[in-house]
Amino acid sequence: MKKTITKAVLLASTVASAALISAPVLAQDDAGAAETRDVITVTARRREETLQDVPLSVSALSGAELERTGAIDITAVAEVTPNVTLEVSRGTNSTLTAFIRGIGQQDPVAGFEAGVGIYVDDVYFNRPQSAVLDIYDVERIEVLRGPQGTLYGRNTVGGAVKYVTSRLDPDAPTLDARINVGSYNQLDQIVSGSVPLTDTFRVGGAVANLQRDGFGDNLYTGQDNYNKDVLGYRVSAEWEPTADLFFRLAYDRVEDDSNPRGGHRLIPSAPGYTPSYPVLDDVFDTRAGLDVVRQSVEAEGLSLTAEWEINEHFTVRNILSSREDASVTPIDFDSLPEGDFDVPAIYENEQFSEEFQLLYSSERLNGVIGYYYLDASAYTVFDVLLDTTLAGLNAQTYGDVDTKTWSLFANFTYDLTDQLSLTVGGRYTEDERTSRVLRRTYLGGFSEYFGGAGVSIATTSDFLGTNTWDDFSPSISLAWQPDAENNFYATFSRGFKGGGFDPRAQTTGAPDFDQNGTVSEAEVFEFMSFDPETVNSYEIGWKYENGRYRHALAYFYMDYTDVQVPGSVGIDTDNDGVNDTFTGVTTNAGAATIQGIEYEGMLDIADDLINPGDNLNLVWAVGILDGQYDQFINAFGVDISDDVEIQNTPDMTASATLTYMTPFAGGDLTMLGTVSHRGDSTQFEVPFEALDQEAYTLFNASVVWDSADDRWQLGLHGRNLTDEEYIVAGYDFVNNTTFAPELGQAGTLTAYYGNPMTITGTIAFRY
C-alpha cells in the first residue's frame, strides 16, 4: 500500500474539535432498520420513521434475520431483494459486481466508477475490491433502489447498499461467540463483544476466522479451487461525555489468503491448439496454470464519527474516514496450463472522505444539509501474456487514477397538511479526475511487476489527462397518507456518475476524427476519455399496513442517457491476420429506457396454529424489469441497439420465505424455507447463449433453536439444496458465431459459478 492508514489517525485528531459540531440525534445510523414482527423503523431520511411511512424504495435485513437464514456474505442479500444483482466478480474472491434496476458496473479496473454505492457505517467504498463483505458483527443491511445523493454520501445512479454494524452496549459487557461447521470442511469462528469502561466510555470488537476447502480442484497446480481463507476483525471505541455528544472511532481489517479462483472453460481448446483440452465435467474444476504471483488481498479502514445534538431542533454530524486496500491476483483468462491468455494483476486503492451534516427537525419541517468530500487514488497494473501467440509476448497496462470530488446536498420534507407532505432535495457535485495510462509491449515474458524478465520493446500508450465535470441533481417527492394504513407517493430523482479515461485504451490507436491526415492531441484526448452518465428516475408507490399484512408496491421508469460502455477488442498490429494485443474502447455509446414493478410484502398467516405461542408468516419480494437500449454504438460506430440487452439484470426476480416458529424444549424453534428465482440474464450487453445464464431457482432452508433466555442458539442451514449450477460471471474472447479465438490461440470462453449445495451447523452463545 502506498500510504499508511495512520494518516487518518492524524487527521482525526486534528479535526476532533471541529467534529464537536457535527452529527445526528438518531439512535440508528442512516437508512437503518430495527425490526420486530410488526414494525420496521428506518432512518432513510435521517429521522426515525416506520418503513411504511418512507416514500422511498427501501429493503432492510436485520443481522438476526441474516443469521437465521445462514447467509454467508453480502451477495445473499440479492436473493431476497427485487431487481438487485450482487455477485462475486469474475476471476476474484472479494471483488463485488453490483447492479440495481439495471444500472451498475462490472469492470473493476481503475478508471471506472461504480453505479451502485457500497457503504459500511456511512463510509462509501470508492472501489469494488474487498467489497464482498462477510456477514458478521452486522446490525442490518439496507438496500436503497434508485438514484441517491441528496441525503448522504457519494452520488450514485443506481442505488446504495449499506452494511451497518451495531453500536456498543453502554450499560453492560456483551459477548457473542459463534462456530459454523459444514460442507467442504467449513470451519468459521466468530467472536464479538464489548465492555463499558466508565459510564461514558466503552470499547468493543469482533473477529472472524472463516475457513473452507474448495468446491473443486485445480487439476494443474493441485490447489483447491473456490476455497476460503479469510481473517477479518473490527475494533471500536465510543465516548459520550454528555447526553448530547457522541463519538465513535472504528477500525477494521480483512486479510484474504484464499487461492486464486480458476474458471471453467465452456468450450474445448480450438482446433489445432496443442495439446487438446476437452471441457471438464465439474464446473468447479479448472486447469488454470498461472502462478507467477501468490494471491493476497488486504484491506483496512479507520473512521471517526461525531454527533452533537445542539437542541431539540438542530443536530450536527461529521464522518471522517480513510481506507486502503491492496490485491495481488493471478487471473488465468484461458484457464489452461499454458500462457495463452494470462493476466496477473495488482490493484491498490486508497481514499480519504469527509462528510458533514446539519439536521433540522420540527413538527412540520424536517431535513438535512450536507457537504461531502472524497480524495481517492486507484492504481492498477496488469500483464497480458500471449505466450502461444508469440513466445514471451506481453501486453502490459498501467493505470493510476486520482479522483477529487466535493458536493453540497440538501433534502427537506414539509408537511403541507396532516396527510400531505412535500419533499424537495438537490445535490451540486464537482468531480475532477486525473488519469495516467501507460501501455507497453514486452518480449521475454512477464514484466518486472510480476517478477518476470520481460523487456519493454514498444509503448502503445503514454497518456496523462485531467478533466472536470459539474452537475446539479434534483429530487422531489409528494406523499399522501389518507389514513394510518396507506401511504401513496410519487417521486422524481436524478442521478449522476462522473466521467473518466479508458484505462485500457491505446493512444496509438486513436482515429483521425477530422480526417486531416494527422491525429492531434485533442483527438487522442477525445479517444481516451468518456463523459458522465445520467439517469432521470420517476417512481410512484403505495405502501399499506393493517397489522397482519403489509406491502410496498412501486412502479419506476428511468431515462438512462450517455451510458458508459466499456469494452476491449483485439488488434492485429503487424497485419498478419492474428490479434497480438488489444485496446480498450469505452464510449458514451448508450441510451436506455428501463421500467419495472417491485412488490414486497409480509403476511402474518396465523398465531397459535398448533401450540400456544406459534406463529406462521410469509415474506415475499417480486421484481419485474423491462429495459431496452434506445441507442448503442459499438466500437465500429454502428448502432446495434436492437441486438443488445441490459446486462446482469434478470427480467424477473422473485423470492418467498415461509417461517414457522413454535415453543420447543424451553425455547423457540424456528423453521424457515426460502425459494429465490432469477430470470434469464446476459453477462454482457451483447447476448451470447453459450455464456449467459438461463432462469434458475434456488432453495434454502434453516432450522434454528433459541433458548428462552436468548443465551444459546443452535442452527442447521441448507443453501442451494437442489445443487443448481448457475453462472455469475465470465470472460468472452471468441467470435460469438464461429467460436474462433479473438485473443490467444485456444479461445477464451470461461465461466465462474455460484456456490453449490452446502449444509452448515451453527452453535452460538450470547451474553
UniProtKB/TrEMBL annotation:
Residues 282-721 form the TonB-dependent receptor-like beta-barrel domain. It is found in: Cell outer membrane. Residues 1-27 form the signal peptide. It holds the Pfam family Plug. GO terms for cellular component: cell outer membrane. Residues 51-160 form the TonB-dependent receptor plug domain. Belongs to the TonB-dependent receptor family. This is TonB-dependent receptor.
